[in-house]
Write a structure and sequence with these properties.
This protein has 257 residues and is α/β, with parallel strands linked by helices. 32% of the residues lie in helices and 32% in strands. It has nine helices and 15 strands. The strands form four sheets. Strands 7-10-11-4-12-13 form a six-stranded mixed sheet, with helices on both faces. Helix 3 packs parallel to helix 6. The longest helix has 17 residues. The chain is globular. InterPro entries: AAA+_ATPase (IPR003593), ABC_AA/LPS_Transport (IPR051120), ABC_transporter-like_ATP-bd (IPR003439), ABC_transporter-like_CS (IPR017871), P-loop_NTPase (IPR027417). Keywords: ATP-binding, Nucleotide-binding, Transport.
């Protein structure tokens, strides 16, 4: 089945995509199983579902970190299935890791300029940092190293995506390892990005506050889409889950794992 999201302008399209791995017993296992879906321009999608359902693998396949075993991926109508990570990045796909890399010797200002791909005025760097709730005077000259907290790194990485002219931004469990205060600022950053950037945003998350930002929620389980729809349709069902209790979403078991 192909999942169409409201019939708007397609930005990212997956056609019958498989991602297989060989397990420790030498047997091939489907992580992504014949997945077809269209993501629209200007929409924010949250992909959720049980752990091990294929969410992070899907994000990595889209970015090119992992190679699809079969199927086709199109960006703005162009086939990118065989494109490398670097080529996809140049074409307008950005990916924020669960654990952003730290680069000793590089300042936050240098990182923003590198992300932008050219000269970037200091006032623009300041605006990107302010957009994610960071004081530019404190952070521009700081090194991107272990002196930064997990929450600071996540927000700086989002600022680098602000600095780029992207078609698709992907965030893999951005809430992982950050405190409640940082998470609140992070959530505000996503809201601001969605309001100000005419791009497709895909977030892998279990968090209710992130789910509430979604135009569309996709529930992924066993490498397949079990259900998808607007947050008004899907979120009330998900919120029936309490501490990992199984609920039924359109007849399919979903776990908050």
């Amino acid at each position: 089945m192909v999942y169409f999201m409201n019939g708007g302008t397609r930005m990212l399209e997956l056609k019958n995509v498989f991602f297989n791995v060989v397990d420790e017993n030498g047997e091939e296992r489907n992580i992504i199983d014949d997945l077809s879906i269209n993501f629209e321009k200007g929409k924010l999608y949250v992909i959720t579902g049980p752990n091990g359902g294929g969410k992070s693998s899907l994000a990595k396949v889209i970015m090119g970190i992992s190679e699809a075993s079969k199927g086709q991926i199109l960006l703005d109508g162009e086939d990118i299935t065989e494109k490398s990570i670097t080529e996809r990045a140049k074409m307008g796909i950005g990916y924020a890791f669960q654990q952003p890399p730290r680069i000793k010797g590089m300042t936050v200002e240098d990182l923003l300029k590198l992300a932008h791909g050219g000269d970037l005025p200091k006032e623009d760097c300041c605006q990107y940092l302010a957009a994610v709730g960071l004081c530019s005077k404190e952070y521009l000259t700081r090194e991107v190293d272990n002196s930064l907290s997990g929450g600071e790194m996540k927000r700086i990485e989002i600022a680098t995506l602000f600095a780029r002219d992207l078609k698709v931004s992907i965030f893999d469990e951005p809430e992982a390892g950050i405190d409640l205060w940082s998470f609140g600022k992070l959530n505000e950053s996503f809201q601001k990005m969605h309001e100000e950037k005419d791009q497709t945003i895909i977030i892998i998350s279990h968090q209710e506050r992130i789910l509430e930002l979604a135009d569309q929620i996709i529930v992924l389980e066993d490498g397949k889409i079990k259900t998808s729809g607007s947050k008004d349709e899907i979120l009330p069902e998900i919120l029936n889950q309490v501490n990992g209790t199984v609920c039924e979403i359109q007849g399919k078991a979903v776990y908050n794992g």
